[in-house]
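User: Can you help me understand a structure? I only have the sequence.
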Amino acid sequence: MSHPVTTNPLIIMLINMTVVFLVLTVLGLVINLIHIIDPTKPKAVKQEESAPAEPEAAPAVSAPATETAAVEEGISPEVIAVIAAAIASYGYGMEQVRAIRPIPRDAWKNSGRAQLAKR
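Assistant: Let's start by predicting it. Here is the structure, written out as tokens:
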């Protein structure tokens, strides 16, 4: 029959903690190595290669009517993007949206007026 090497709980704890921290260190090194050798990372392009010989004319992109109207009213483009993502998650397209307008929220104001009227 084999006997345990030690029954001292302190030594068992130290051995277990050493093994755990060694495994965590190896995992950290593997993660750093993956970040260095990442095949999905876009390659760095030299300045000379990235600059085209002749400037190309950018195609004119017309913004949807809802976005231009919303920017005029003060709704930020980030909020428009979030609303568009929420609509798309339900399976609808932005062409089905006619307008994005903020709803007037007077609940707090009306609640305060109602409480003042009670007094």
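Now, to help you interpret it: Residues 9-36 form the longest helix (28 residues). Residues 1-38 form one domain. Let me know which part you'd like to focus on.
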